[in-house]
Amino acid sequence: MLGSRFFIPFLFLSREVWKTVGPLRKKRVSKVFFLIFLFFVFLQARLGIIQLKQGEYYTCKAIEQETLTVVLEDYPRGKILDRYQRSLTGTWVANRIVIFPALIFPKEKGDVVARLILLLKIKDPAQKDEIKAAFFGPPKYLSYRISKDQAQAVQKANLPGVFVLPVSFRYGEKPLAVQVVGHLGRIQPGENYTALKTGNVKPYEFSDWVGRSGLESYYEQELKATRPYRYVRIFMDAKGRPLPGLTVQVNTKDNSSDQQNIITTLDADLQQKVEKITRTRLKKGVVVVMEAASGDILALVSRPAYQPQPDKINCSLKAKEKEVFLEKGTALYQPGSVFKVVVAAAALAEGVVTPDTVFFCRGAKDRPVRCWYEPGHGKVTFTQAFAQSCNPVFAQLAQKLGAGKIINYARRLHLDNQRVIGYPAPIDKRQNLSLISAPFNLINSSLGQGPVLATPVQITAMINTIANEGIYKPPRLVQEIKSDGNRTSRYFKPGPYQQVIRPEVAHQMKKLLEAVVDEGVGQQAYLSNYGSAGKTGSAQTGGQTTDVNAWFSGYAPRQKPKYVVTVLVEEGKSGGQTAAPVFKDIMMALLKE
To answer: pTM for the full model?
Structure first.
């Protein structure tokens, strides 16, 4: 109001003056006025953004300046959950002793310290030192666990400035699917901090923990909380003294409005079973478990694993190779003879062969490629050749089909599509099926070597297509994103499902996959009570060693398949010897629910 009293007379005066101003000066004044107007528009917009989108954050900062607060959660972030909303990181809540030194008169501190040590029955000198130190400086909770009896004793004593409150911890002792979930790390100066600040609504500080890999990184903005939602605080006056008459404010409920939870398709029970088996059976490699009916990934294990807890992860980095942190289910590998599924499907669909077509294998004498079985398989049907993974037969089929048809069927089976629904892992551009048509690549490609690359998830989805009568079901790893209030902000629909090969061809392929475990090189994957089917693969790694990347990808039961499992053992002996037995153990564990 005061400003308008001065501004209005000036406005009338300026009209009189304006008449005497020349055209050039009028133009300059108009430009200055326009620039001032733009400045105020920008300022108003910026204030609107701060108030509407970051108002809660700055309100929290203002409260922090007026209070002493202990955050009752180690990492204020949304949860990463399995399909039944069970924590994959092992989130747990436990009582801790919380100490506010400001609420204790200086003369009483020694007595309170002594009584607390006596109530807790502490004998360890290190724990005694931690308790004594906690009574000086900012408020905090004691790091070590307390029993139910200890908690009750402290509560009953009602010591000044001492509370027993539940604290939420993000990581349990045995977190699951660690490479999928990812890990956290402090914001690093420079590029990392700049990238987070640019284009993000949520504010960041150098003290924040952020996702460095996996879902923690891909969904950083959704998971991040702008402020802690579990806390205990006391209000202070301008001189830093507790305000008399105000009670201690405690909030121990997860009621965040901005942090969200990631609901995956993983099943914690199945993931745990697979991890238990691979801990002893798979030193280096990957296992993918897919639900046949939907294409959802139920378990994904990469080995070797690491400890994602921030206090342990640096030790993992120093102790093991960098590749230990890779999520291998979406990494590219040469599929070896598993790729013969593509060649066989193309040959059957194009009428080049039937299951009974006869071939002759001369073993080591065959050209242009020799068979792994040096004496040779002799006279074999196509079904037997597939079961025995006979290389010369598939080399002949590749020459009859030509590169174009093999590429076409590989694309139909989505071996050029690395996308996993809800899991935005980077696309590896080395995957290029058109290289099959390059000179001298056709024969090697038909055996899953040379330029042919695929991910374990892609191989799993391909075998699932056969199990589902030729219907391709895209792999999915994340179902939805939900707030703590159970409101869905984003849902990842399964599908769409596509008929990519004819049902009759898929039926023939199922018989071929059954022959592999009945009479072929994958007999160690046979499940007597359920029946199984699948394909082995042995891909040379190109090093000095004779070890290979050993594959087995298959499904069970034969009638109404429930699970599709792919096992890749790095530095193995062969798919039949190394990967097939692991497949059998995993599938038996899954089916015995």
So the answer is: 0.86
